[in-house]
Amino acid sequence: MTMVKDIDVRGMQHCETTALGVLLRHEGLDLSEPMLFGLGSGLSFIYWDSKGMGFPFLGGRVKPFELTRNLAAVLGLELLVGETTSPRKAWHNVAAPIDAGRPVGLQLDSYHLDYFSTKVHFGGHVVAMYGYDEQDAYLVDTDPQGGAVSTSLAGLARARAERGPMTAKHRSFTITAPSSLTSPQDRIIPAIKTCATAFLNPPIANLGHRGIEKTAKQVPKWLQRSDNPQEDLPQAAVLMERAGTGGALFRNLYRDFLAECAQLIDSSHLRTGHSLYTEAATLWTQVAALVATAGESGDTKNLMQAGSILHELSRIEREAMQTLSML
Which intervals hold domain Butirosin biosynthesis protein H N-terminal (predicted)? Predict the structure, then answer.
């Protein structure tokens, strides 16, 4: 058995921030999950639908691994990324750092992980790996998935080799902190402004505040959009509230990030942004509940109400990001 020593196997709410937390704590940098998410400019929004999809998908964060790249750039961390089509090379990219005493981040499809509670294909899942033996790999996943867990090496290989939406080619990564690390506090304002600029200026109508407005118009049609609304709508609500989002489609995490920032930086813009995202987080949870109820009852009135709240959310989040962009 090969294990990296002194690993803090604390699980968090979201997969990518959980893995980043493990890797950074091993480098001596212990940041809260909201701070990791915010410094990585992680908040976003996407309404994703196409003819080939059974039901629309609502996303509340930047695309997989972008948060990791953002965070490394903001803090001046050395991020080494390995990708390959060779399973043999892929295993070497993981085993070599662990043999040398360094944990490794992996992007994979959660469907093939033995311990995973919900068997759905999701190729953007991220875990930290800190050990292995002849049969199993030892990982850190989110708190809801068990924190410190293990999966068979065969299952891990399938998860890393899977192809489809959001997958990467056996992606693995390590992080090294420089001896003179950039102060995280000094990078808060640039990270917030980067996030705000992207949110306020989406290249297409499915993203950012425009995407929320589009969702407001589409959600009232969801009972007709679905072949199985009793399953699809409650599942959409679960994805918004519990599927590694920290609740309220990542808005709880960003709210808590802004609250932490307001303790460090005296700014009325920060306080206003935090107040608006506190309101937004509550409303997103209400939307999820209305969507679930609509699926269970078949009553369009719940979706009409959800659409009305989403119109308001588009305005609130746009106003919040406009305020934060003035930092």
Answer: 14-142
Q: 243 and 212: one domain?
A: yes
CATH number for position 119: 3.90.70.10
Q: What is the pTM of this model?
A: 0.95
- Express each pLDDT in 3-35 by its tens digit: 999 999 988 999 999 999 999 999 999 999 999
Which of 152, 176, 200 corresponds to the end of one domain? 176
Q: Say how far apart CA 33 and CA 180 lie, in whole Å.
A: 22
Maximum Cα–Cα distance across the chain: 59
Structural domain count, the chain: 2
246: CATH: 1.20.120
Nearest to residue 254, comparing CAs of 31, 37, 17? 37
How high is the mean pLDDT of the chain? 96
The radius of gyration of the chain from alpha carbons, rounded to an integer in Å, stands at 20
Do 271 and 310 lie in one domain? The reply is: yes
DSSP run (H or E) holding 311: helix 300-324
Residues 163 and 189 in one domain: no
User: Is the predicted pLDDT of residue 197 greater than 90, yes or no?
Assistant: yes
What mean pLDDT do residues 95-108 have? 98
- Structural domain that includes position 236: 184-324
- The whole-angstrom separation of Cα 230 and Cα 135 is 40
Q: Report how far apart, in Å, the C-alpha atoms of 293 and of each of 86, 214, 286, 297 are.
A: 46, 21, 11, 6
